[in-house]
Amino acid sequence: MAKPPVSQKTFHAVSMTGFGRASVESEGVLLDIEMKTVNSRFLDLSLKTPRSYSAFESFLRELLSSQFHRGRVELYVTRTVVNKDSTSVLFHAPVFEALYAEATRVAKEQGVLNEELERSFVRDFLLRREVLEFAEEVKDEEKEKELLQQGVLQAVSSVKAMRETEGEKLAQDLLKRVGAIEKIASDIEACLSSRAEEISKKFKERVESLVQSSGLEADRLEGEVALLFDRIDITEEIVRLKSHCEHFREIGQNSPNGRKLDFLLQEIGRELNTVASKAQHSDLQRLAVDGKSEMERMKEQVQNLE
User: Fold this and answer.
1) Taking the CA of residue 139 as centre, how many other CA atoms within 13 Å lie in the half-sphere pointing to its CB?
2) What's residue 1's pLDDT?
3) Helix or strand or coil: residue 38?
4) pLDDT of residue 16
5) CA 85 to CA 83: how far, in whole Å?
6) Does 10-86+136-163 carry CATH code 3.30.230?
7) φ, ψ for residue 76 (rounded to 5)?
8) Is the dihedral of CA 300, 301, 304, 306 positive or negative?
9) Is the pTM of this model over 0.85?
10) Domain extent listing, the chain
11) 8 A C-beta contact, residue 40 and residue 51
12) Which residues pair with 79 in a beta bridge?
C-alpha cells in the first residue's frame, strides 16, 4: 500500500538567517547584546565582546554551539557600568613607548622633529584606546557570567523565532517545487505511454539500420540491440526520481536537514540529467528541463536551511 504524502505541516525547515537583540541589567552592570546569523556551510562563530570578558569566550562558544548547528553566528556584547566606582584607568606604557619612539625616530630622520611635534605625539598617543584604557572592573565573574548567559539566551530566542518564521516560508516553497517535480515525473510517464508507438517506431528504425550497416552475427546483434534499448529506457530513472521526491519530504520532517536535502537534490538533478540525455522525444526533453529548473531553484533555497 502506498504511503500517504507527508503533510505540509510536518515539513520542518529552519532558515540560517536571523537577528536578535537583548538588554539585561544587574547590580549596576548593563549588557546590550546583538546577534545575527547568516548562511555558512558549517557552524562559524564570531564573538565581539569587551576585553574584560575574554575569560568567557570558551563559555560563549560552547553555549552558542549548543543552540545552533549550522551558519555563521555573529555575537556583539556591549558592557556599560552604571556604578562608576568600579571604573579604573589603565595606562599601557610599553605600547605608548613603542609608538612614541618610532614616531620620533621617523620625524628625526625627516628633519622635522621639534618640541611642539613631540608634545603632539604625546597628546595623540594618549588618546588611543590601546594606550589609555578605561577599564570597568568585573568584580564578581560568576554573577556576570550568569547575566551574560541570560542575555545571550534571550537574543538566541529572538534569532530562532525569526529563523523559524523564515523557515516556514522556505518549507512552503520547497514543498510546492518538489510537488512540481513529482508532477513532471508523472507527465514523463504519461508522455512515454502516449508516445510509445512513435518511440517504438524510431527504435525499430535504428535497429534495422544497424542490421543493414553492421553485418553483425545474430548473437552480437542481440547484444547491440539490448545496449541500444538500455540507452533509451528511462523507466528506472523515473522510479528513482519519484523515490527521491518522497525521501525529500521524509527528511523534511526533522531539522536540521539542510545538508541532507542538498545532497538529495543532487541525486534528483542526476536523474533528470539522465532522462534529458536518454529522451527520444522533444516533449520528454522539455519536461526534464522543466524539472531541472525547479531543482535549481530548490537548491538555492536549501542553501539557506540549517
Assistant:
1) 11
2) 40
3) strand
4) 95
5) 5
6) yes
7) -125, 125
8) negative
9) no
10) 10-86+136-163, 93-130, 165-302
11) no
12) 31
Closest CA to 35 of 17, 51, 52: 17
| Contact yes or no for 11/249 (Cβ under 8 A) | yes
Pick from 243, 248, 241: which is nearest to 278 by CA? 241
Continuous H helices in the chain: 57-65, 93-109, 115-126, 141-194, 196-214, 218-232, 235-251, 258-278, 282-302
Q: What's the pLDDT at 248?
A: 94
Q: Please, what's the b/e burial string for 278-296 (b: 16 or more CB within 10 A of its CB; e: otherwise)?
A: bbbbeebeebbebbbebbe
pLDDT mean values, one per 10 residues, the chain (306 residues): 47 93 91 96 94 91 95 94 64 87 90 89 83 70 93 97 94 94 92 69 68 61 57 83 94 88 94 85 88 94 92
Pairing assessment for the beta strands 29-38 and 71-81 based on DSSP bridges: antiparallel
What distance in Å separates the CA atoms of residue 175 and residue 91, rounded to the nearest whole number? 61
State residue 8's pLDDT score: 44
Whole-number Å distance between alpha carbons of 255 and 202 = 48
Q: Is the peptide bond before 4 cis (omega within 30 degrees of 0)?
A: no
What would the grid cell of residue 305 be?
A: 536551511
Query: In 3D, which of 86, 205, 195 has the Cα closest to residue 140?
Result: 86
Phi, psi dihedrals of residue 37, rounded to the nearest 5°: -130, 140
Rounded CA separation 34/156 (Å) = 9
Cell of 110: 625627516
Q: State the pLDDT at residue 7.
A: 43
Q: In whole angstroms, what is the distance from residue 217 CA to residue 305 CA?
A: 57
Q: Does residue 165 contact residue 265 with C-beta atoms inside 8 Å?
A: no
CA distance 158 to 155: 5
